[in-house]
């Protein structure tokens, strides 16, 4: 096999933004010399990171004057990234910040940071994030948090300045720059601190923390894992106050995880987590406000959690937002996920007022679309923008300062995803949405303020090209960066006009002839539509083997499944094309199929709400419908169809194998939730209700309830220190399999959590999975 030098241009620093395709990194014009070269697909390719084509810049931001675009980028195409800056005036790219000590890796971070990376699903190394320091001065600087401490790097400065050292025994957690750029807030030893850059002085703002039991400024586990709230403190808009949470987990029973693979015993070989199981109490969350100059804390009249009452209205602190005039807005969700309150706090007068209540069935989905309007610009000043699914699809609405809804900004059978920017002076709002189809995402512009005389106008699309568009707007709302990819196009980064969407210049492009892509002969999946039993349109993705090598169908078939809420598996994105396990199986002559069943994301509340109270029922039946469609099309054959999935997908794999034994012959179930009474409060109760309210649903939704019907072969895969889906789930299923006299296979990783991270473990896992399918499919 001819070797392909993927590193040919990696050591050359890119000097210009606009490069011709023949000298862009990752471009390769070498063609395979023979058939054997073109079809060789080592199993190690499945776990190589980054994926083919996913070396494009990430974490893109603009400098305060919009003259620079910064990003995280790896010149050597690894997971270890540095900060680069693109000068939009002269078209040059320069290294802005390279970590002095190599930056972050899995061996030099604290235990707290490792768990935060689990919550973030973060695998990046080197530099994983940065923030612009916004000052009124001409100098340009960024803040970069690393395991060694907090660095400040000025543009063109020869070396960065270590402003605040950190250590693994007393790590700096979640640092953020103040809006005015003069201070840095951070958490250390479970207390909130602030560093004044002007005087280089650090001050502790909170006191009374008790280890990991009572903490200040750190988001609790449920907030990080299930609510997509990673922060436990928030800067006021004028940089004078910080709102923060006090989390008290003292009344939550600890769930102990033993490190069975360690040679040592005792405290070093165990960890305790205050894990709130379905139906039990959540942690207590108080909300406080403190001045950046120190002094006493103002505790607001709000207590979330801490009770098992099913009708508790103040169960979850979902979001915190500051408005102008130091008005604080708390979004508070009830226990049953059916009511969300917007509570306004006047931190000076101490007044509390509920200004808006959202009630929704089957549940309320949290979002980050709350946007305060500026003071004194228009007659709608001091109001806010809100998003609601009251029509069945998430749309934007304008509200006044008292919370009264003044009318919709968007409407239709599609959903708004995120607000990208607001131009109040021009009366425009920019947002990403699914208006052009649920498999795509585009940037749109709409009128911000209602026109009482005319009907709502359709939004204007600003992005070009099918697929997914993730955008970052500049501060002056003149241009935007478009990160675009599709099934046929690896990620590329463009600078575009916010006026009409036209391309101004490419910032990063890569040719379709990516060496790994060519060498492995990857093919984008084919997107198809089928109908569920009730007539609902379902989208599927088909990875067909090459008929010139493997002959005509039917083929042995594997269904790659997730199927759970808040996730879309089938979309017009490059990530689907470089699903390396699917492509590996395809190279072995196996047809791979994916289907987004009812209950999955980005199709509206009715589509997602089919899951309510019944995980393992309609979602599994839709997957059966997909398999039956494959059989009717002559692509697959009953009895030669297997499944694989992870987490909720692991649950689905085991459930479908047990429920439909005459269609499916084998399954790999990774880190499965096997009984919902063993998972956490927020997620489980949102979709299932409380255990005592829905005993039938909990019983039917347990894999153990169906194992007596099992005929096919089952491989269970689980990390023994998984703190999210505990290994206990797999152990309970094994007990049920033994009791029912059903065979099973078990692959465990004593030192891994929810997903294996170590390279050797991941290769070993893929080898065992393939060997299992070879024997049983």
Please describe the structure with a list of short key phrases separated by commas or semicolons:
about 775 residues, alpha+beta, Neuraminidase, Rossmann fold, eight-stranded mixed beta sheet, five-stranded mixed beta sheet, 14 helices, about 35% strand, disordered N terminus
Describe this structure in words.
By secondary structure, the chain is an alpha+beta fold. Among the domains are: 143 residues, no CATH class; 127 residues, TolB, C-terminal domain (Neuraminidase); 253 residues, Rossmann fold, CATH 3.40.50. The protein contains 14 helices and 44 strands. The strands form ten sheets. An eight-stranded mixed beta sheet has the order 37-38-40-39-41-42-43-44, sandwiched between helices. Strands 1, 2, 3, 4 and 5 form a five-stranded mixed beta sheet that branches. Strands 14, 15, 16, 19 and 20 form a five-stranded antiparallel beta sheet that branches. α9 packs across α10. The longest helix is centred in the last third of the chain and has 18 residues. It is globular, with a radius of gyration of 26 Å. The relative contact order is 0.09. The N terminus is likely disordered.
């Amino acid at each position: 096999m001819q070797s392909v030098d993927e590193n040919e241009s990696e050591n050359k620093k890119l000097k210009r933004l606009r490069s011709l395709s023949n000298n862009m990194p990752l471009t390769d014009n070498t063609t395979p010399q023979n058939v054997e070269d073109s079809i060789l697909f080592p199993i190690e390719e499945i776990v190589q990171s980054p994926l083919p084509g996913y070396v494009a810049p990430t974490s893109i931001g603009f400098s305060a004057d919009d003259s620079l675009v910064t990003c995280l980028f790896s010149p050597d195409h690894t997971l270890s990234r540095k900060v680069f800056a693109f000068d939009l005036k002269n078209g040059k790219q320069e290294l802005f910040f390279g970590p002095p000590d190599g930056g972050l890796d899995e061996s030099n971070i604290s235990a707290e940071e490792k768990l935060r990376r689990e919550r973030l699903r973060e695998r990046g190394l080197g530099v994983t994030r940065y923030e612009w320091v916004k000052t009124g001065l001409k100098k340009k600087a960024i803040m970069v948090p690393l395991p060694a401490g907090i660095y400040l790097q000025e543009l063109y400065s020869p070396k960065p300045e270590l402003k605040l050292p950190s250590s693994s025994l007393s790590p700096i957690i979640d640092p953020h720059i103040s809006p005015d750029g003069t201070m840095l807030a951070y958490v250390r030893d479970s207390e909130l601190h602030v560093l004044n850059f002007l005087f280089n002085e650090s001050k502790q703002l909170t006191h009374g923390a008790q280890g990991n039991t009572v903490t200040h400024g750190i988001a609790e586990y449920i907030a990080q894992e299930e609510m997509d709230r990673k922060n436990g403190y928030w800067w006021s808009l004028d940089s004078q106050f910080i709102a923060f949470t006090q989390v008290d987990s003292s009344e939550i029973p600890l769930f102990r995880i033993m490190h069975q693979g360690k040679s040592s015993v005792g405290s070093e070989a165990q960890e305790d987590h205050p894990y709130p199981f379905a139906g039990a109490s959540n942690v207590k969350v108080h909300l406080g406000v403190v001045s950046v100059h120190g002094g006493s804390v103002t505790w607001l009249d709000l207590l979330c959690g801490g009770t098992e009452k099913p009708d508790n209205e103040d169960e979850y602190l979902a979001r915190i937002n500051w408005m102008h005039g130091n008005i604080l807005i708390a979004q508070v969700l009830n226990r049953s996920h059916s009511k969300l309150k917007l509570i306004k706090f006047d931190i000076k007068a101490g007044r509390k007022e509920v200004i808006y209540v959202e009630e929704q069935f089957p549940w309320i989905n949290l979002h980050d679309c709350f946007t305060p309007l500026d003071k004194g610009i228009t007659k709608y000043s001091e109001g806010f923008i809100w998003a609601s699914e009251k029509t069945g699809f998430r749309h934007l609405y304008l509200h006044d300062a008292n919370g009264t809804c003044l009318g919709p900004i968007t409407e239709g059978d599609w959903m708004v995803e995120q607000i990208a920017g607001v131009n109040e002076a021009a009366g425009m709002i920019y947002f990403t949405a699914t208006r052009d189809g649920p498999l795509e995402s585009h940037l749109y512009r709409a009128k911000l303020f209602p026109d009482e005389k005319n009907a709502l106008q359709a939004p204007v699309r600003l992005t070009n090209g099918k697929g997914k568009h993730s955008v970052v707007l500049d501060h002056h709302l003149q241009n935007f960066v478009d990160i675009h990819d599709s099934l046929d196009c690896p990620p590329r980064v463009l600078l575009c006009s916010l006026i009409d969407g036209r391309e101004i210049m490419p910032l990063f492009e890569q040719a379709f002839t990516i060496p790994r892509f060519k060498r492995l002969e990857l093919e984008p999946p084919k997107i198809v539509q089928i109908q569920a039993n009730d007539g609902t349109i379902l989208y599927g993705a088909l990875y067909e083997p090459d008929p010139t090598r493997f002959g005509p169908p039917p083929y042995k078939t594997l269904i790659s499944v997730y199927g759970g809420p808040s996730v879309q598996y089938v979309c017009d994105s490059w990530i689907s094309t470089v699903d390396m396990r699917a492509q590996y199986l395809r190279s072995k002559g196996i047809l791979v199929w994916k289907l987004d069943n009812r209950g999955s994301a980005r199709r509206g509340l009715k589509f997602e709400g089919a899951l309510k109270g019944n995980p393992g029922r309609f979602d599994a039946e839709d997957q059966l419908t997909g398999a039956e469609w494959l059989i009717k099309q002559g692509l697959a054959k009953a009895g030669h169809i297997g499944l694989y999935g992870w987490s909720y997908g692991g649950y689905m794999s085991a459930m479908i194998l047990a429920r439909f034994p005459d269609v499916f012959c084998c399954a790999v179930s990774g880190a499965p939730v096997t009984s919902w009474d063993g998972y956490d409060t927020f997620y489980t109760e949102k979709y299932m209700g409380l255990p005592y309210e829905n005993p039938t649903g909990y019983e039917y939704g347990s894999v153990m309830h169906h194992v007596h019907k099992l005929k096919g072969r089952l491989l269970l895969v689980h990390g023994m220190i998984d703190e999210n889906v505990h290994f206990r789930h797999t152990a309970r299923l094994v007990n049920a399999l033994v009791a029912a006299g059903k065979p099973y296979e078990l692959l465990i990783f004593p030192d891994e959590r929810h997903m294996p991270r170590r390279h050797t473990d991941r290769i070993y896992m893929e080898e065992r999975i393939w060997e299992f399918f070879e024997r049983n499919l």
